[in-house]
Design brief:
The structure is a homodimer. By secondary structure, chain A is an alpha/beta fold. Chain A is built from nine helices and eleven strands.
């Protein structure tokens, strides 16, 4: 199993205070783009890999999904997710994405938000997703963008014009990156954008859309602590079938 | 028509001295990767958009192509390309990629190396390529990588560890970038990686493989003037059908 940082007290406390944890999807700035990549959920059987507090699972049911299975490795997050719903069509289950085993052809949509950059065995996971999807099924996910995860020393610098610049390096050096986000020594897996695309294709998927989300100038004006976030993408979003 | 920098004397003289101009494909470091993305050319009808001196056109014939059409906007380059072959199965023709019109279904492979980042109307060009391909046809091309073309002030900096870092910014600001490469004020079109992928898909293609070429540490050791080129991708390579 990879690092389960969400079950350490300091990280969980910090994560629980993030706007997207308190207010849900509406506070996730990339959500409108990710939502636009989803199929019509009416009557669909949905899985959410790395479901966290279950915001998407509940939204999917409101959007008409027939059933939703939320999977997460964090007991803390699953406990809270279970407290927030009495809907019998939403099931939460503990699962490690490194060793996930899905039943064959039981989902119409597999969704995941910002979970796969913690996973080492992405090829195995994509093959499981392929296995779990029914014919015509869709796969929609987001991860931290490779340009964001690559640098050895992430942190904004300024170019000679005084404009924020992201110090991109180590892009082709795939593997673990240790960052101090909410807690010390959070391990994320950096991989290239080509790796995400080619693993999808090699797992039998056809890429339908790819988006690179970055903040707009208006976003940055409204959130001074986002300064620079309009200069390079933060999230990579992909839809495949 | 976009800027035809190859027909200005200073640029053409500089370009003519580049290793890839003098020695051909073997001196293009990304060629082995691009070559590995090509189909078997035996008996194929091939087009090369932005054929330059015709190195690829001649190689394609040696690799078994039935016919090769090389298209370029530069009279200088076409003149030299025509001097290098007497093969009647290779035809060179002047064409502006901004307004290219291909006959329907006449090619098995459309190829292009490092030309599309000069083109403004990429959607129109991709639609023409789609039109020009016979059923089952392939489309393989390379461009300068969006991470390479994005910055307002390109040029290596150092991170706090002393490692080369590329000052990435202006990534989502698509459009013209003026650089001083071989001549002053060379205009290239920056677009995001998502734009290349989605334009391909929207034009009816299925993405088969995507590669992000960067120099290896060994390359950099062998070419001291490439210092830093192993830290971020220089070229984006795509294969579609």
């Amino acid at each position: 199993m990879t690092q389960n940082i969400y079950d350490t007290a300091a990280f969980f406390a910090g994560y629980s205070r993030l706007p997207r944890s308190v207010e849900g999807l509406a506070a996730a700035p990339e959500w409108p783009t990710l939502q636009s990549m989803l199929p019509d959920l009416q009557g669909q059987r949905v899985a959410d890999l790395g479901c966290g507090f279950g915001w998407f699972c509940r939204w999917a049911r409101e959007a008409g999904a027939a059933s939703v299975q939320g999977l997460d490795v964090s007991e803390n997050m699953l406990a809270r997710a279970r407290e927030t719903t009495a809907d019998p069509a939403i099931r939460y289950e503990r699962a490690d994405l490194e060793t996930l085993a899905l039943a064959e052809g039981v989902f119409d949509l597999v969704y995941s938000s910002l979970a796969f950059h913690y996973v080492e065995n992405l090829r195995g996971l994509f093959e499981q997703v392929r296995r779990g999807l029914a014919p015509g099924g869709r796969f929609v996910f987001s991860v931290e963008h490779p340009m964001y995860t690559a640098p050895g020393r992430p942190g904004w610098t300024r170019d000679p014009d005084g404009r924020f610049a992201w110090p991109l390096n180590r892009y082709h050096e795939e593997g673990a990156r240790s960052t101090d986000w909410l807690a010390k020594g959070v391990i994320k897996q950096h991989r290239t954008l080509a790796r995400y695309v080619n693993l999808l294709i090699e797992s039998g998927f056809t890429l339908a859309r790819l988006e690179e989300w970055s903040a707009s100038a208006d976003d940055v004006a409204a959130h001074p602590d986002w300064a620079g976030a309009d200069e390079r993408p933060s999230f990579l979003l992909m839809a495949a079938h």
